[in-house]
Amino acid sequence: MKQLKYFAVLFMTVALLSSFGCASTATKESTGEYFDDSVVTTKVKDALFSESTLKSSEINVETYKGIVQLSGFVSSQANMDKAVEIASGVKGVQSVKNDMQKK
Question: What's the whole-model pTM score?
Fold first, then answer.
């Protein structure tokens, strides 16, 4: 009976410690957040690709905890503004950081 108690305590300890591996920290995303950010990135890229006035291949998209970063070189300020507007309208985007530069 004592062995069963020790085994149960050991099992619970291992289960608790392994759950910390999926938790997020200030500098690391949890597994769920990483998946959510991947979905947001894909949606933003799709929205940018669907806009015929933009060359979506010029714009790089990265997402971290719902904050989308746009980078790359675009041909005009109007294209920058349009890309930020499109990215801001995507569901799941908390804010957009514009690191794009004009050619």
Answer: 0.69
